[in-house]
């Protein structure tokens, strides 16, 4: 059921409707709020936002520029561009940010003009970031040329970050590579690690490999750099270079870290991932990987096991393979370890020794299916598809445990692909019967109207091997009908991912009977659903339906309670009491007001009490706030993204989402700077105390409660 909630403070000076925003008062505070309304409703307000961009108050101009960055309407460019020469630094920063978010070719041309003439370092940082998001090869080359010219005032760490942003988008250049290598000897650690980050974002590249060989001694020196961020970015770079020199430095890094009194688990995590890549070809790297697998840190063990989940086996003689199996089996059996790590070890165990899948099958049967380990065991079984594993998986497709049912449907795809299917159902009659049987179970699954199950089932229905099995059973038309019915029943914002998956499945099935359903989906309140429907219709009809998709998602849930927001003060704090200790988060109501308001309302309702951290990616994020505990849940409504000038550093608190404007209750905390999230995910807080607690969190740890501290300055 869609929740629509609008809270209008009687003291606000703006009247909001779904089509326009009318100013009643012209005070800066009221105009700031008007900009926020327009931003949240994704409206330009019939020229109102353009007027705010020209307002005499710099606070209003800045707020309007941030709103333009979030709305991403290219028609606002003529009004945003003049703000690049605004007398106020903060306005110029916001204007540059907006141009980067809008991301047109015209944006880049205007940003280049500012790059040549701007003197303020904070503005230059925003300009360089924006160029990295919107520019092409020409802009990258000009940025490096500017960096090499005398008198250029941009900070080297900001230049390195800008180069990395180009690299994230697949734009690389030799001058940029040389600049980054030259910066590896900079006296400031932040410059060194950002230069390494820029290099690995541009890797693999022949010049990077050549320079690593030429400057091997420099890289060896970086293995004992005092800054951990330097060492763990070095590990990532080395993992992307296929050369003996890179392997030598990587093995040296593992040994250096093992002996260091300042050993950092984040370095071990990235080193393990890189060694797993090299260990498939190099014996020394494989041995170093095995040494890391004997570390005691949970994050390191998780990353090491996950690194074995894909790709060829590590090289090594029989005794090495036996040692690897012994260590993985000991982790599976270690009940002191989090279930997630034991599960990761089980998957790795079957990957390195497929003949031992029976051990995992027996473990699944004896343990039962009520804990978080069971889905991982299903994953492990599917790594070596066989009849027994298939039968166990098929039996769990209709499990009452939603997470287990999802896992069974997800991993079923590995069994229905040949050659696994040849073992399970070799004859035509067997395949026909199996296709009908799976179709019946699929229909029941879709009628559960669970967003997670519908998504994984729809994804499977897009798999050609599964569809061939359904066709063998003569029930493909029924599959189309079932998916059409599911699309009609699903509702945004809660079911967005399921809607998208079901629509994509209908497109892949290529049946014209889906056209009426897809045409109805064009007008969904969530624009991404409409876009998916338009793409599906184009594949079915060769007609462009994009003009029928709404320009923005409708703001189904709004909460403009300024009285509550202003009562918090500028720097309120939320204290998360977790099963591992307390985490104090400084909230950012000026940068993400409606996200902060939603978070606080949920906290006051005790929504978060007892929820788990359901996702942990070592040296990336810990994620929580999902009432389902599987990443598919939310509060029953969605809020809009609120991107700002604040960037992701270690300890940033951001909102998880399935795409723009789909945020709900799930949040994440970063282990390390995550620059690729900037401008894409809302940041609404930062950890100011308790990062040691964040570092200890594992899947299954709980949020006991969340309490609020108002800004003591008020």
Shape: globular
The overall pLDDT, averaged over residues, is 93
Low-confidence stretches: 1-25
DSSP, total strands: 10
Number of helices: 35
The first-level CATH class name of the domain at 1-154: Mainly Alpha
Corresponding CATH superfamily of the domain at 1-154: Leucine-rich Repeat Variant
**How would you classify the helix and strand content by structural class?**
alpha+beta
Biggest β-sheet: strands ordered side by side in the sheet: 5-6-8-7-9-4-3-10
Instruction: State the distance separating the first and last CA atoms.
Output: 39 Å
Q: Please compute the radius of gyration using only Cα atoms.
A: 27 Å
User: Which architecture of the domain at 1-154 does the CATH hierarchy give at level 2?
Assistant: Alpha Horseshoe
